[in-house]
Design goal:
Layout lengths: L4 H13 L2 E5 L10 E5 L6 H9 L3 E5 L9 H7 L3 E2 L6 H14 L3 E4 L5 H4 L13 H8 L6 E19 H4 L14 E14 L3 E2 L2 H6 L2 H23 L4
Parallel strand pairs: 1-7, 2-5, 2-6, 3-4, 3-5
Antiparallel strand pairs: 6-7, 6-8
Helix pairs in contact: 1-2, 6-9
Length: 239
């Protein structure tokens, strides 16, 4: 697949939906090299939006079930995403695939809130707790000049539709506890949305060398907190 194909598909997809995207602080986006994009997450449109905003194809880590559902599987593949493995192999698979992409100076996208905001409808201004896998990835990857880029997605006009019962999705991924709940999987469609780019955090050699023992936990906590705080602060401009 051409490295630019996911970006072209994303732009065409947004144009077909008539979504109006407004980019803020676009000058903060690194134009080359390895980048780890970290963002809040509420909609299936988030990945195409972030690609259009960054101006580069972004390889997103997606939920395991997306590689199991027909049609959805093909869409994920065309967008250049890498679905996470089943629960017992998820962590190892994530680090291996993401590290390889970063080492080839590509852009990797992570939604640290995980699946909950996709499965349970949340308000645009809400940001859930961040899983810290992305911070471990950034600090342990042997990649020079790696930038961690926090991005806030601020929807100002949208619609929400119920598309499929959650329990039906458990057929494709029985290991996911969220799919055992009663209710429907929501689909948020943005009509107007703001993409606000935060200040990139460049991972230094000193930080990577210090990523060991008790100090590793401190570095991971600081990086995760900084990204989440930036995203929350950017969202406050609109809500």
């Amino acid at each position: 697949m051409s490295l630019e194909k996911p970006l072209l598909i994303s732009r065409s997809f947004l144009a077909a939906l008539g979504t109006r995207m407004f980019l803020h602080y676009g000058n903060r986006v690194p134009q080359e090299g390895a980048v780890l994009v970290v963002s809040n997450h509420r909609s299936f449109m988030d990945a195409p939006l972030l690609m259009a905003a960054v101006g580069r194809s972004v390889h997103f880590a997606t939920h395991h079930y997306m590689s199991q559902v027909p049609v959805l599987r093909e869409i994920v593949e065309q967008l250049g995403c890498f679905p996470l493995a089943s629960m017992d192999q998820r962590q190892q698979s994530f680090f291996k695939q993401a590290t390889q992409l970063l080492q080839s100076r590509q852009v990797v996208g992570i939604f640290p809130e995980g699946a909950p905001p996709m499965v349970n409808f949340t308000q645009p201004q809400e940001v859930g707790s961040f899983e810290r896998g992305f911070a471990h990835l950034a600090l342990r990857s042997p990649v020079k000049n790696l930038a961690v880029l926090p991005v806030a997605i601020a929807s100002t006009q949208e619609t929400c539709h119920n598309i499929i019962p959650l329990k039906l999705l458990s057929w494709f991924d029985p290991s996911e506890p969220l799919f055992k709940h009663v209710g429907w999987h929501p689909m948020v469609v943005y009509q107007r949305v703001n993409i606000l780019i935060g200040k990139p955090r460049w991972i230094t050699v000193a930080q990577r060398e210090a990523y060991q023992g008790k100090h590793a936990k401190t570095l991971v906590t600081e990086l995760a907190y900084d990204c989440q705080s930036q995203i929350k602060a950017l969202l406050q401009h609109y809500y």
